[in-house]
Amino acid sequence: MERKNPVFTAFVYVCALLLAAVILAPLAWLFVMSISPAADLAAKPLRWWPQAAEFSRYAQLLSTAENSAGAAFTSSLRNSLEVAGMATLAAIILAVPAGWAVSRTPSVGWSLSMVIATYMLPPVALSVPLYMGLSWLGLLNNVFGLALIYLTILAPFTTWLMKSGFDSIPREIEAAAMIDGAGLLQTWRIITLPLAAPVVATSALFAVLLAWDEFFYALLFTSDQRARTLTVAIADLAGGRVSDYGLIATAGVLAALPPVLIGLVMQRALISGLTSGGVKG
Amino acid sequence: MSGTWMTTRAWLLMLPLLVIMVAVIGWPLVDTVRLSFTDAQLVGTAGNYVGFDNYTKMLTSSNFTRTLSTTTWFAVVSVAAEMVLGVLAALLLNQEFRGRAVLRGLMILPWALPTVVNATLWRLIYNPEYGALNAALTQLHLIDDYRSWLGEPGTALAALIVADCWKNFPLVALIALAALQAVPRDITAAALVDGAGPFNRFRFVILPYLAGPLMVALVLRTIEAFKVFDIIWVMTRGGPANSTRSLSILVYQEAFSFQRAGSGASLALIVTLLVTVLAVAYATLVRKTAGSAT
Fold it and tell me: Per the CB < 8 Å rule, is B178 touching A271?
């Protein structure tokens, strides 16, 4: 659609290479740091490529030997998986009926708008009472408590995605099933939920990404290996006195792997989810 | 089926969500308002009613005004840069060239990278003794000595903004790209035939399609940038000399480091109010843009 001007074409390729470099260089460096011997990382001038790649830090972090760096890392990995899993499951269970209700009965939509408007609230506006509440319930430093708090972020978001998903399923199909004598639950089971399965999956993946990324509440409400999540563990490593920067980088690579894989595999669905949010508001 | 039963059923289906939302958002918000009028401590004393003392104390403290201006600066510069870079990247990705699909796929990587990992990565890159930025700039003879990018008030905020932009401009690019692909080709072709130059084509043909989605991205990114906590906490904890302290970090320090729940709550509500005003102003703007575009 543009003119086939060779100068313009060359310009496009130069820009594309530049953009690729800007995106990839920091990520590549994170990986290189994770496999470079500590001496290479401390060398001046800095060695940009390791003399001999070593993957020992990965083994070190993933080992479960007691009182090792690995034990702290693997327990935070498990906590992150548990919290993200529980919070996502709960968010979907809340979001499916609510999203359907708003989609089919727009007159109750204002309540969902109110729920979504809470997105504006800075977490600090809720943090003090939530801290006191969790402390009162004995749920501080507890994966269940943290998963419950994560619903403040996950539930509005998934409900909104589910609502747009149900909007695209024609209600005539449901009406036809109902006329044939199916009850609401039966209609859901046979018609609605199978059709909505891709949206449920996308919403769940978004929720996992959000929970995996969360830092503020995890920092406030967890204190040790029983509930501390990966993000807090990595921030501790980065801010602590660890002298091996490669180890910090390795933890970063491991923590980034699940969301990056989700991102790449689900690319199309994620982008359409993001942009439908961007377009519809 | 009758309308009333439909509505009742809808409320019943929404009930679980609404109950949980009241428990984890509604009640805490109301309680934050109550706390903001007391001198409660985080642990122990319930606190006495002190009227608007917390508010006047917080609003008149030099900490607050300085932090407000730091946060505003961070939000304005990083969001503006993300918008410009995002649109430029989207215009590039909308061209036809080999490897375009791959490059588009790469754009998802910074977005998918957890914020804390991004902050950690840039903290390592900026490291004053062994960091890659110092090494690269010295090896290119652009600087003579290693610098402490995050350790000096003059460069710390700029360094944070670069890290934040790198993570967030690809998202703007993807949103803008989706909007660009909705521009009908015959319209751009017609403009070309009519002799419109590249700038005019962008301004009058393409921009109207971009305006709506970009405004929404702008609103969401600005609200997020205004609430910023994670990236700053991991990279500088608000230092050096509080030069990168954001409002959220100030609230955290007041309520949790100093355990002053009452004044922390009042500060949190001031921040909430600022974000709300921002959001409402923007929403009006979005409606206007959406109305005038196309």
Answer: yes
